[in-house]
Design brief:
The complex is a heterotrimer.
Chain A (H helix, E strand, L loop, with lengths): L4 H50 L10 E8 L2 E6 L4 H24 L6 H20 L3 H19 L6 H31 L5 H5 L7 H18 L8 H4 L5 H10 L4 H8 L1 H6 L1 H24 L3 H21 L3 H28 L17 H15 L5 H15 L3 H26 L14 H16 L4 E2 L3 E2 H10 L16 H22 L13 H8 L4 H38 L1 H7 L7 H22 L1
Antiparallel strand pairs in A: 1-2, 3-4
Helix pairs in contact in A: 1-2, 1-3, 2-3, 2-9, 2-14, 2-18, 3-4, 4-5, 5-7, 7-10, 7-12, 9-14, 12-13, 12-17, 13-14, 13-16, 13-17, 14-15, 14-16, 14-18, 14-19, 15-17, 15-18, 16-17, 17-20, 22-24
Chain B lengths: L11 H17 L10 H20 L3 E3 L4 E3 L1 H24 L4 H19 L3 H19 L6 H32 L4 H9 L6 H19 L7 H8 L2 H26 L7 H20 L5 H21 L3 H28 L15 H4 L1 H14 L7 H14 L3 H25 L16 H19 L2 H14 L3
Helix pairs in contact in B: 1-2, 1-4, 2-3, 2-4, 3-4, 3-10, 3-13, 3-18, 3-19, 4-5, 4-10, 5-6, 5-10, 6-8, 6-9, 7-10, 8-10, 9-10, 9-12, 10-12, 10-13, 11-12, 11-17, 12-13, 12-16, 12-17, 13-15, 13-16, 13-18, 13-19, 15-17, 15-18, 16-17
Chain C lengths: L5 H24 L6 H4 L18 H18 L1 H6 L1 H28 L8
Classes of the chains: A mainly alpha, B mainly alpha, C mainly alpha.
Chain lengths: 625, 481, 119
């Protein structure tokens, strides 16, 4: 497995070539190289997975080490990769779906003047994401973690002439860095207490930490995970991040980067197992986020924003799963979500592309007859997202809800079921508004070129059939595949996972979902958009439309404070340092006047500052003894 | 009568620099003025020769001048950083300062003073080193006499420098008065044997010495000259003095504080820690609103000095090693950044404004990418050299119980991200202007400098182990192990 | 050890007391009736011309500095002269080197026009 590093090197090389020689190579060659790099990385991953499958389950874990990075006393950090079923799953998602999105971008970014730069960024992102999921220690995880943050910053702000894109990019970076700090602090605690940063080293010594330490580490890791995976209240950057090109939204903000938080919690399960309080929080906030974001998504009018809030909501489900130790179920939903959410985003991109960059759903409608391929593939994606029975989302979401119920988390289950109703409602509201009724805009809709529709078809096959790897009551290939990862340390496998499916609960969710689809059809499939609401609902609509005013609250609290800090910093030199200088200067003004009538300017104040500083230093030293 | 043993080997690199400067002045007598800049290459050769003898001296500790000068691993390691910065002064100087024999000689003398400062283990030699490094720098700061800012920089530097030298000398007098000794080793012995007249004198002496060196290191509140001087001085000189002076002052501070004055008896440790926190917070905050690249780098340099002094505040072998690593790291990152500024500016320093970096990546991709690397390294983003540098300092701070120091470093680093990343963003933003504010080409030596610094920033970032081994020896040298 | 410095401290004290005392006494006791003639700069009984602090040409400072440098260098000859016989050939060579370096510096200043009064 020593060769697995090649999977990382390919996009690294692609990104470098596109960045340095992109101009000279031209658009076509650049796109061939970068997309080719992703295709090759995908094939390489397939070979890795193939070799893993050939081994007995217990041996499916490799930790090739490439070089020693830091050797400082007891602390050793090496650069190594961890290849096991969990990282292999992510490798497949990142390279596979990443490849499709790269391919799609060739069509979507066709007219953009910075075509080569875009592909360079895309490959850079893939590299960082691959490093994140394959690193075998927390330090290089953090390197990848920071790398995806930077890459997403570059990609969100790709259209840097739009002020809103730049603002959104900055917002995303700031919130992500806040999360990075959480992981960094967790890392410090691990280094201080255990003197180790490798997964194997940390996980096998978790028991030597006090429960307070381990809770703290878990909370700090979760802070990082929540920022990257847009959990309430750190979710505000994700909807704004839709300012980036749509393939970016699909790649980063649906399929891969935002799931990094789920990966982290799943990877660090021995820590979360030892930290029950933190794990409860993970699950609780996850369930709340699932419901909260789903309600917001119902009233948004921007097609990408609806899908963005849908992503936040689905991530909530995944955190609900990993929070109650149903790791395999969480990763299963994550994988299915990667398919259908990438599909939905690319479908939305196809629509936006067809309507000359129109994103307002009120100006769409009736696109079914203009864009048949997009229509049918989107329908599959929507059904999977809603959890309509027999589509992939149905299997994965029910796996989570079933385990929540079986492990005794009744309230979490209930919140999840209510959120499922809203999920089906918002996605089919979107679907009917866009594709049914009459066309309400003034562009000339047309089907997208094959380079865009082929990825849609491939993804829709995944969204349609992917769920059948785990059919309740019959087989669960996915759990078996991940089983060696989660059985290495205690706490990775929920006893309830083995329980027989609760058919009643499954039936209940199915009915609720279908009811929501019916409501959506009843209200939104018509020719005109219903603008009037019953008076009683209007305040609720306003609150939801304004996303519970979280942005405004965040702005008021955080941005205001930071702004003031920066101004304070600016004033510090002038007011405080100079102020002290001036104050003292006035004191000795009379003397100064008499002694130095020809002295002028500021050097006097510098000298005074040195003098006062020196006096303070000496005073400190003489008093301290 | 006994004469002290001089032992020329102990000052071999210094002798090489001095001889080069004399030869340069001598040649200048017969060289027409318009060819004066060729002497720059002579200076380059001299510095390279001095670097070349460092490995030969590494094998053995040489003591000279009756024990006043020691050429140990610590001194040699610091000398390397100083010589690299002198190299940059010559490589970058060709274009901007129209160098002649005087430029060559002044740079060599300043480097000589810095090197004496790091290898001196006796109070008077230390002061000699400090003065020999300061006087040429005053002149160098004002080397562009046709620019008001340069003249202003020289004047301010001279006045403030003289002031701080006085304070420093006063401190040395107190140390001598308290112990009656001039060599650092015997001062330490005297303190440990309670052979002091009055502990108060020791404290005052330590404080005044710290203030004098804090001035050279640009610690808050002794920093105010730095932005003016760094901005006004010619860029090659700024690159040279920002790194060389810090390396030298760091060396002297380590030798005086951690070696001569045991922290358990003289209470300088909390003081240095406080200055470090003040410096790194203030430097980072003040850098936020700068619009001039050199001025921003000056404030960033203040902040970096804060990180560096945290290593001293740790008062441990680990701390000294971390500080030395950081000096080397800082040499590569900071000289690199200034080299790009110098490569971009012509005779008149056009385009030192950060705003003029907009869209640079599309006009001068090589310089823009290099600048990005240097700024990211300064922001200590892995895998660049700033990251292991700061990591070692953090570790030293934490392991000697300075958790607050560590938090201050992290907070400072977070603030610094903003102003380091802003120029990066600008460089990669398309600019509407087709007119570049920069001259179209740079002297080839500037590109060489950028390349060398880039290589150092990358290689030591990925393989910091290359340096930590030799530095371990240097730490042992200073603690006399 | 501290006590041995006591006479110096006493000396400083007396100097300050006398200085402040004399100036203070004249300020307190002396009558003050300023007029134009009294406020004029005192210049050895001659009618003053121009300002009190006239500007000097910067060249004065240059010459003064060069003089200082070479003058101080000359002081270095004294210890060598005293010990010349004990230092023998080594001392002679050292001094020759010293003079050579000094000479190059002198020649350099000369060449750069450091002694030229007019440009």
């Amino acid at each position: 497995m020593q060769d697995a590093i090649g999977i990382l090197l390919l996009p690294a090389l692609g990104s470098l070539i596109a960045a340095v020689f992109g101009r000279a190579l031209g658009r076509k060659a650049t796109s061939y190289i970068t997309v080719g790099a992703m295709a090759a990385a995908f094939l390489w991953t397939v070979s890795v997975v193939w070799r893993l499958l050939a081994l007995p389950p217990a041996q499916r874990s490799f930790d090739p080490v490439y070089w020693q990075w830091i050797h400082a006393g007891a602390l050793q950090v090496h650069f190594g990769l961890l290849i096991d079923p969990l990282s292999a799953t992510f490798l497949l998602i990142v390279t596979g779906i990443g490849f499709l999105i790269h391919l799609y971008s060739i069509g979507y970014m066709e007219g953009d003047p910075n075509f080569q730069r875009f592909f360079s960024y895309l490959n850079l992102f893939a590299l960082a994401m691959l490093l994140l999921v394959t690193a075998d220690n927390f330090l290089f995880l953090l390197v990848g973690w920071g790398g995806v943050g930077v890459a997403s910053y570059l990609l969100i702000g790709f259209w840097h002439t739009r002020p809103s894109a730049v603002t959104a990019a900055r917002k995303a970076l700031v919130l992500n860095v806040a999360g990075d700090v959480g992981i960094m602090l967790a890392l410090f605690i691990l280094v201080m207490t255990l003197g180790r940063v490798s997964y194997a080293g940390v996980f096998s010594h978790v028991s030597s930490l006090t429960s307070l330490q381990v809770e703290l580490v878990a909370f700090l890791l979760y802070l990082g995970a929540a920022a990257k995976s847009a959990q309430f209240p750190l979710h505000v950057w994700l909807p704004d991040a839709m300012e980036g090109p749509t393939p970016v939204s699909a790649l980063i903000h649906a399929a891969t980067m935002v799931t990094a938080g789920v990966y982290l919690v799943a990877r660090a399960y021995p820590i979360f197992h030892a930290a029950p309080v933190a794990a409860e929080w993970v699950a609780g906030i996850g369930a709340f986020t699932a419901l909260f974001a789903a309600t917001i998504a119902i009233v948004q009018n921007d097609i990408k924003r609806v899908i963005a809030y849908s992503t936040v909501s689905q991530l909530g489900y995944m955190f609900l799963a990993v929070g109650i130790s149903a790791y395999a179920a969480g990763i299963f939903h994550l994988t299915m979500h990667a398919f259908f959410k990438a599909l939905l985003f690319l479908g939305a991109g196809s629509v936006i592309h067809a309507l000359s960059n129109e994103q307002d759903m009120r100006k769409m409608g009736g696109l079914k007859k203009y864009m048949p391929i997009t229509y049918w593939t989107f329908l599959i994606g929507a059904a999977a997202n809603a959890g309509v029975p027999l589509f992939s989302g149905f299997f994965s979401k029910d796996a989570i809800l079933g385990q929540a119920l079986a492990s005794g988390h009744f309230w979490l289950w209930l919140v999840g079921v209510v959120a499922a109703f809203f999920s089906a409602l918002y996605i089919f509201r979107l679907f009917f508004l866009v594709f049914h009724g009459k066309y309400r805009g003034d562009a000339h809709p047309h089907e997208s070129p094959p380079v865009m529709t082929v990825p849609l078809v491939v993804l829709s096959i995944g969204a349609l059939l992917g769920g059948y790897v785990a059919v309740p009551g019959a087989w669960n290939l996915f759990d078996q595949w991940l089983q060696p990862v989660f059985s290495r340390y205690p706490g990775g496998i929920l006893p309830a996972a083995a329980a027989a499916p609760n058919w009643g609960a499954i039936a209940l969710t199915s009915v609720i979902v279908l009811a929501a689809v019916y409501v959506a059809w009843r209200y939104f499939a018509g020719d005109v958009v219903r603008e009037e609401l019953p008076a009683a609902l209007r305040p609720i609509h306003k609150v939801l439309y304004n996303k519970y005013y979280i942005d405004e609250l965040g702005h008021a609290v955080f941005v205001w404070t930071v702004d003031r800090l920066a101004i304070l910093a600016d004033l510090f030199d002038r007011v405080v340092v100079d102020g002290i200088g001036m104050g003292m200067a006035r004191l000795v003004w009379g003397w100064g006047e008499a002694l130095s009538p020809y002295e002028s300017g500021y050097i006097r104040r510098y000298g005074l500052a040195v003098l006062i500083g020196g006096v303070c230093v000496v005073a400190f030293l003489t008093l301290v003894q | 009568m006994n004469f002290p043993v001089i032992n020329p080997l102990s000052v071999l690199p210094e002798i090489i620099l001095l001889a080069t400067s004399i030869v340069a002045l001598f040649i200048a007598l017969f060289l027409p003025d318009r060819r004066g800049h060729q002497l720059n290459y002579l200076g380059l050769v001299g510095v390279l020769a001095a670097i070349a003898v460092l490995p030969m001296l590494w094998a053995k500790v040489e003591v000279g001048f009756g024990g006043a000068i020691v050429s140990d691993h610590f001194a040699l390691a610091m000398d390397a950083a100083i010589l690299v910065s002198a190299l940059a002064a010559f490589l970058l100087g060709l274009r901007e300062v129209e160098p002649g024999a005087d430029y060559v000689a002044l740079v060599l003398w300043a480097a000589l003073g810095m090197m004496v400062l790091t290898s001196a283990v006796e109070l008077l030699s230390i002061f000699l080193g400090l003065e020999v490094l300061s006087l040429p720098l005053y002149v160098l700061a004002g080397f562009r006499r046709d620019r008001t800012t340069s003249k202003e920089a020289a004047m301010k530097y001279l006045l403030m420098g003289a002031f701080s030298s006085g304070i420093f000398l006063y401190g040395l007098a107190f140390l001598y008065g308290a112990t009656g000794k001039v060599s650092l080793a015997s001062i330490q012995a005297a303190i440990l044997q309670n052979f002091t007249s009055h502990p108060l004198f020791l404290e005052i002496g330590a404080g005044l010495v710290a203030v004098g060196l804090a001035f050279k290191l640009a610690l808050v509140p002794f920093h105010q000259w730095v932005p003016d001087v760094y901005e006004g001085s010619p860029t090659p000189v700024t690159a040279f003095m920002s790194v060389g002076t810090k390396a030298a002052a760091f060396g002297a501070l380590v030798r005086i504080l951690t070696v001569a004055l045991p922290a358990g008896i003289v209470h300088w440790q909390p003081l240095i820690a406080f200055l470090a926190v003040l410096t790194l917070l203030f430097g980072n905050l003040a850098a936020l609103r700068q619009t001039n690249m050199k001025r921003m780098l000056a404030y960033s340099g203040i902040a970096q000095a804060g990180y560096l002094v945290v290593a001293i505040a740790a008062n441990s072998q680990m701390g000294v090693g971390a500080g030395m690593f950081y000096v080397v790291a800082y040499a590569f990152m900071n000289i690199g950044a200034f080299a790009v500024v110098a490569a971009l500016s012509g005779q008149n320093e056009e385009g030192a404004e950060i705003a003029s970096y907009r869209g640079l990546a599309y006009r001068r991709p090589w310089l823009a990418v290099s600048m990005t690397v240097f700024l990211l390294a300064l922001a200590s983003i892995p895998p660049l050299v700033g990251f292991p540098g700061k990591f070692y300092i953090l570790r030293a701070a934490v392991s000697s119980g300075g958790v607050l120091l560590a938090i201050a470093i992290v907070v400072g680093t977070m603030i610094s991200l903003y102003y380091y990343l802003r120029p990066v963003l600008l460089m990669f933003t398309h600019s509407e202007e087709t007119e570049s504010p920069f001259p179209a080409t740079a002297h080839w030596t500037a590109h060489v400098t950028v390349g060398v610094m880039l290589a150092g920033t990358l290689v030591l970032g990925i393989l910091p182990g290359l340096l930590t081994g030799p530095l371990q020896n240097a730490v042992h040298a200073i603690y006399g192990l | 050890m501290l006590t041995s410095y006591f006479p110096i401290a006493l000396y400083f004290l007396v100097a300050v007391v006398i200085g402040v005392g004399v100036l203070g006494a004249s300020r307190v006791m002396g009558p003050r009736k300023p007029n134009a003639a009294k406020l004029q700069t005192y210049e050895c009984g001659v009618t003053p011309e121009g300002e009190v602090g006239p500007r000097f040409s910067v060249k004065f400072y240059l010459v003064a500095m060069l003089f200082m440098i070479f003058d101080v260098e000359a002081v270095s000859f004294y210890p060598w002269a005293v010990l010349m016989h004990q230092l023998r050939l080594f001392g002679l060579l050292e001094m020759a080197l010293f003079v050579l370096v000094l000479g190059i510096g002198y020649a350099y200043v000369w060449k750069r026009g450091g002694f030229q009064w007019q440009e």
